[in-house]
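To: structure desk
From: M.T.
Subject: fold request, one chain
Message: Could you run this one when you get a chance? Sequence is below, nothing fancy, just the single chain.
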Amino acid sequence: MLAYIYISYGLTRNIYIYILWGLLKGKVYKNTPRTIEQHKDAIRQEIQAVNFGTLGKVFQKLEKRIQVCLDVKGDQFQHRL
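Reply: Done. Structure tokens follow.
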């Protein structure tokens, strides 16, 4: 049971991060960071700029993914997004 809870939490957290990164990566790469430090700084800056609107988009995208997954009964659905 504990392993299930850990796996479920890990997967849920990862999907939020995946969706959030999808929203932020364009902003991070907008100024074409050339070094690791520039890249880290750009990521930090964009994460600090996250607001409730951005988080709302994350939840909307997750809700859509869940609904499509349910519609296809767990089959492949990436191509439907």
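Reply (cont.): The longest helix spans residues 2-28. Let me know if you need anything else for the meeting.
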